[in-house]
Amino acid sequence: MQIAFKTLALKNFKNHKSLTVNFGDGTNIKGRNGAGKSSIGDAITWVLFGTDSSGGKLDPLPIDAGDGTESTVELLVSIAGKDVLFGRAQKKTAKYFVNEIPKKATEFNEFIENQFDKNLFLSLFNPSYFFTQHWQDQRGQLLQYVSEPLNKQILAEVSQVDRERLEGPLKKHSLDDLDKLHREKVRTNDKAYERAAERVQALEEQASKNDGPAFDIEATQEEIKSLNEQKVAIQEENDIRLRAKTARSRMEGQIDNLTDQITQQTHVVQSIKDEKVQELCGTCHQPLTEEAIIKVKENRQARFNKEVATGKALVQKVNELKKSLSDMPVAEAADHDEPNLIEVKLMELQVKVKQAEQARSLAEDIEAAKEKKEAIRRELVTSKGIVDAIKEFKTKRSELMVRKVDDLFTSISVKLYETLKNGEERATFEIEMDGKPYSKLSTAEKIKAGLELIEVLSKQSDVVAPTFVDNAESILNFSAPAGQLIVARVMDEDLNIKAIETKGDGKQ
Fold it and tell me: What pTM does this model have?
């Protein structure tokens, strides 16, 4: 994607009351210190992102601005062949415009984000911006365009033993997951092996204390079986007695209940018998007719006969239950001593059997503990071997990755990893030139390093953007990047801006 600036218009921006810049393939900006050369670069990033060219905060208003002063910046940009006019104004609050149409801040920012990545743009625009980021952000930004070496390429670099340890597992797990898995196994198995060894020792000491005379566990178990059968038989006899006693008690209760019902029924029959026939109507108190009196008497007789029949049925049922009760045998009292004796004997035998089983189980536990100890040892050795193999794998991967990244640059080298005292590898990031870290480079060397980095980022990201080189008087010549080049130099003259339509041989 090609990004190119066409025009930049400033009003009341920092020390520029009014300025229009027309950009060419190259644009040279010259002038004394304080003439506003750097402000041109800041205006470009301010209209797009609200920051200076280093990504920091920026107050666009001139120092002597009055209360009614408003800073405005418009930037006409060609993005992938399409012209877009960005505008930003600020008095007390900011205003945003895209192609002269007012936008909300969120709409404006979303539009920018859809055009290009802010960090990438600033890294391509300002040769020093990349190095102002945290080293992790620098590392991430560069490596996002560089693919890691394939596992098979790295495995080809390690020893045959390490290759055999890792080749299979890496088909099932990622390297990081495999590393975590076996580091955790080493940690847990170290402790587990120690505990397993202590358990074997403790069991063997316990076995030496419990040595005693031989015991016929099978014969004792047969005796226990016989006693349990006797115990069950006695329990069954007691259950039969209990059921008979319960049945007798239930029948006696039924007889008592029916006897109470017969008494109540006798009272009911007698009360019907004692009823007097009323010759007056209970509602209107008029004398009943002869026919009505006959019906009342017939009704009383019918109720009397019914209740008498019910009473006879109850008496018959009581007599039947009493006959059944007299025929029912009386249960004998249970013998409580014999079951108790059996229980005592069973407890004695079971204690002996348990002791014998514990001794036999102890021997089995010792053997199982030894097997477990050996299994843990084998697994521990395997995991330690894999962890060591992963360390070697990571070292080779780092070497290949560094080589791959260094091949992108001409004079820059990149430090991606550092080795700790324990042999572990830790990610880091540092740009070096001619063996010197970036922080120790001169201004000219920093500009050269930044421009070389821009060239690599532009190629890897496939984005070509303008580059603004400030303080270029400190460097005699350099290779121009692929995009537009804007160069600002301190010269003892008034501010002078000149657009160049071609970069020629790329030298500035």
Answer: 0.62
